[in-house]
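To the team - flavin-adenine dinucleotide complex, inputs and output below.
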Amino acid sequence: EGPVVVVGASLAGLRAVESARKTGYAGRLLLVGAEEHLPYDRPPLSKAFLDPGEDPAVPHHRTEEELRALDVELRLGVPATSLDTDAREIVLGGDEQLRYDRLVIATGARARQLPGEQLDGVHTLRTVEDARSIRRALDGGCRMVVVGGGFIGSEVASAARKRDVDVTILEAAPLPLVRAVGEQMAAACADLHARNGTELRCGVSVTGLEGEDCVEGVALSDGSILPADLVVVGIGADPVTDWLTDSGLQVEDGVVCDETLRAAPEVYAAGDVARWHNPLFGRMMRLEHWTSAAEQGAAAARNALAPAEATPYSTVPYFWSDWYSDKLQMVGITAADEVTVIGDLDDTRWLALYRQEDLLVGALALNMPGKIMKYRAMIGRGSAWQDALAFAGR
Ligand code: FAD
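Output:
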């Protein structure tokens, strides 16, 4: 019998190995990771990690001792380069074959780059190295442009404002965040930038970057050039599936899985890389959220080790994002027939509820951390819209 192998040593991969041990599996367990680091947490990279002051440490999830106590063989700094599901074998670093008995794929996502050659001073933000480069540039004082008005771009802009760095966010769409929070609430989120002195320009796209070696400006679709010596590109992420090309797995914007996170016999996927059937909403989903990556990692390993008793993984999607001194939290889905705002959008606290037919399907809150999880539970129970309104005091 081969070992249990987990590919991708970040949040989902870590939770997979921890869960394998928790279920009582005592055999060989390997965690393979392309990065040199022990598993570390990504959300702080666009938040506290960028704060002024001493250089922060890598935000590891666990110490080496904690991982050693789990009796996990760590293969860090080496990527899996291919998978053969018939032979039940992966290849590491292009030449080392490794047989598995069960496989969990947790290779996450990588940041999308701007097309064309990259200049110094242009960064995406996915890894701790990316965050360090952005920190250094902010420390040096700079003129900053953020490409993309999504969550990561917005958080980086917030970090810049904390240091009084002038920052412009460029968004190609008429409004940012429409996919994440829906048409109705996008403007209310975007307004947080104006309140905090960040310029947000929508409906403009980047046509090129100016500069020889180092970036000096960003050329825009309206013909203008915006001077910049730090450009952070936050235009989304793509699931890391290139190593699965000849695996026979179905890959379509992620590894396609059933509701138990199974992609093929003995092969499961979890986290940002997984597209699975979420039974709660009766549809395929791929989430790029911390909470689902952690939960799926644990569920995938459990199901991989006991396929006969495999349980569906269903969840109400949840993510948070910290902008300036504000906390945005979204639960559920945004495809709604109606959105009702409770409170005043000019205020520092508000709540928006999303209705589909006669059900509550989503909720977005600004600075209401106590409340939002109650709505998450209501969505999970299939609560009626009228009950949600009554709970909100309407
Ligand atoms: P990843 O964290 O992407 O890890 C995948 C790992 O697999 C990586 O270490 C990668 O190097 C490795 N890998 C890739 N290919 C291979 C290979 N072939 N072989 C071996 N290893 C490989 N979510 C929220 O809900 N709230 C937030 O506030 C929030 N903030 C975020 C801020 C930033 C800057 C980022 C980048 C993400 C943020 N997220 C947030 C999202 C959250 O961090 C992700 O959903 C989570 O990290 C996904 O975990 P994962 O293990 O699936 O994938």
